[in-house]
Amino acid sequence: MEKNLEVLPLIPLRGITVFPYMVLHFDVGREKSIVAIEEAMLNEQKIFLAAQKEAKIEEPEEEDIFETGTICNIKQILKLPGDTIRVLVEGESRGKLTKYIEKEPFLKVEVESLVDEDGIKNNKCEALVRSIRKNFDEYIKLSGSIPIDTIVTLEELNNPGRLADVISSYLTLKQEKKQELLNTYEVEERLQKLLDILINEVDILKIERKIGVKVKNKIDKVQKEYYLKEQLKAIQEELGEEDEDKKELAKYKNKISKAKLPKNVKEKALYELERLKSNGGYSAESGVIRTYLDWILDLPWNKQTEDNLDIKSAREVLEKEHYGLEDVKDRIIEYLAVKKMSNSLKGPILCLVGPPGVGKTSIGKSIAHALNRNFVRMSLGGVRDEAEIRGHRKTYVGAIPGRIIYGMKQAKSKNPLFLLDEIDKMSNDFKGDPADALLEVLDSEQNSTFRDHYLELEFDLSNVLFITTANSLENIPRPLLDRMEIIEVSGYTSEEKFHIAKEHLVAKELKAHEIDDDKVKISDSAIQLIIDSYTRESGVRSLERKISSVIRKAIAEIMEKDKKRIILNSTKVKTYLGPEIFTYDKADEEDKVGVVMGMAWTGYGGDTLPVEVTVMPGTGKLELTGQLGDVMKESAKAGYSYVRANAHKYGIEDNFYKEKDLHIHAPEGAVPKDGPSAGVTMITAIISALSGIKVKHNVAMTGEITLTGRVLPIGGLKEKSLAAYRAGITTVIIPKDNEKDLIKIPKTVRGKINYILADKIDIVLENALVKNE
Ligand code: ADP
């Protein structure tokens, strides 16, 4: 090995090891290094490059720089923006740093250049060279990152040391390994080290490749499937078969063109179909689009049924399907007649108001039947969100149209009779008032362009005949109420119930149970018994249920005991239904002191409300017992005050309250009662008790009272009258202001009861108290 000493500028390199014969470029930014370059350029353009032991050191000292480096020729320098210089160098020979000559303004060192001798000295060396070549070939193949022609260049190299250096410069190795190779001056030793490293690297590459193949195999499989699918598609196309997606798209297209949609709806449908096409069959979005298209296609945009405006046949249908309800039927016929005349069914919406089970829904159905329209029913009970009427926007997950559009889909025609049940049971919350949305639905001026949030299209509701039902008028939002024509359907008398049961319910239930009417027969007395003792309601719903229940039990018995037929009489009903559940207050047999029959309105219709008052020595306390509601307690107190203020008028000692206690008691029936109509009853009972004058046993009364003795009107007169009638009362005292309601009372009842109109409590007392005592 030849050795020469040279003095050269040094540049410490960070993270790079330069081998002799290697060509590379690197960037120089450090002040000292730039000066070193400049110095080198002024001389022989030679520089000594040695690696730093740790790359991060900014100002390396002697001990931070490896002693062995490479003497290089600078081939080119390029100024880069920001005081950086890019230097292209070519390694010339290995160099060993022997001395630092200067450290400022740049590192100047004395270097011993070490040049390898040419030629192969011995067989061992030859063997090493061959092995290295072989392994490097393999390395090139496996790594794939070294240009193949490198091999050709290497073929020509016959200096083993140089060969080692060139190969070393090509390997991707850790810096310390590279430095180690550079540090090895002895050629044979260097070759040996390089061979070890190469064998190891080749090994690693082989393992890497194995792993790589596995991963690749997986990817290949996916690609293969894709490829096969594409091929399949091509084959199917070739054979004229369409794939599922295409079939589906075609199906929709066909449906859309057949559906006779209005122009804008069709456009929208085709637009969505286009979106479905571009979304592909399996995306979440395409599911949404499909549902939407189904909705559009299912709606009766243009389907219509022919109206039957033949008033006579409409009347027949109504009569056939419902007993009684004369005024309701009349109103409906009038309504239809007007519609027929004006040739449109626009106009106020009918609202049937009455207690549950009086046939509001079923008469609605009959009207549809009579008119030959499809019937849909939607309950508004519990609806409190505008979106329930008008739908959710499609952007909501799982959005669906509102109930109106839902109903229209069920209706299957654009002119159904749409029954909106329980319109008084809607409420509102922070999500908007459903009543507002309903206003639009019911408004004939607006509803031809009803817009559902989900549908995003206008739907024409102007041909729909809306009928609403409610239990009471109180809770119907005012603006809605203004748009409706109210038809009251009040409760039935026991006679009416009897007719309804006999003429409708029994037959209906027998039919529902598919049993011949000669197998199970219900006697009149049994029906009456069920009405009186097993039901308490204004309508006939639980009557219907009880009838159904006895029929079921009869069928069971027929089956079980092999009977031919069963006659359901009172005794049978009692064994089937158990002990009687309800008994009614009956009017007392004789006149009594302090006992007055009042009347109240409950959720189940009218009921009698007896009030009892007793007087006992005491200190003027007023005691109230029985299940009196708050309003009734107020009535009792007001009545008491009135009596104290007017005691003398009725022959009662002025200061009675100083030494007497009063106890007012309202015996609780099966149903809780409350309401502002017990004032007159309380006063009458108190006065009777204090004065000792008896109250007529066949008189019942209702009315609220002011402190000056005026009698105020009450509600539910018909229901109350029915209750009094049922209890055997013959005289009913009512507020004078309720006179107008008398015509609503069924004739049978009006014929049997003597109504007395009272505007002042005096009139009530005059008629209720037994005279001459
Ligand atoms: P609502 O809607 O007023 O609560 P429904 O219409 O549900 O009452 O009536 C309950 C049941 O009673 C139905 O089976 C109905 O046919 C029957 N019904 C009610 N009133 C009559 C009637 N006047 N004639 C015949 N059946 C009736």
Report on the structure:
This protein is α/β, with parallel strands linked by helices. The chain has six domains: 2-115, LON domain-like (Archaeosine Trna-guanine Transglycosylase, Chain: A, domain 4); 123-216, Methane Monooxygenase Hydroxylase, Chain G, domain 1 (Up-down Bundle), CATH 1.20.58.1480; 244-298, no CATH class; 311-488, Rossmann fold (3-Layer(aba) Sandwich), CATH 3.40.50; 494-577, Helicase, Ruva Protein, domain 3 (Orthogonal Bundle); 592-768, 2-Layer Sandwich (Ribosomal Protein S5, domain 2). It is built from 26 helices and 26 strands. The strands form seven sheets. A seven-stranded mixed β-sheet has the order 19-20-18-17-22-25-26. A five-stranded mixed β-barrel has the order 1-3-4-5-6. The chain has a five-stranded parallel β-sheet with strand order 8-9-12-7-13, sandwiched between helices. α2 runs parallel beside α6 (187-239), α17 packs across α18 and α21 crosses α23 (679-691). The longest helix has 53 residues, at 187-239. The mean pLDDT is 86. It binds adenosine-5'-diphosphate. Adenosine-5'-diphosphate binds next to α12, α17 and α19.
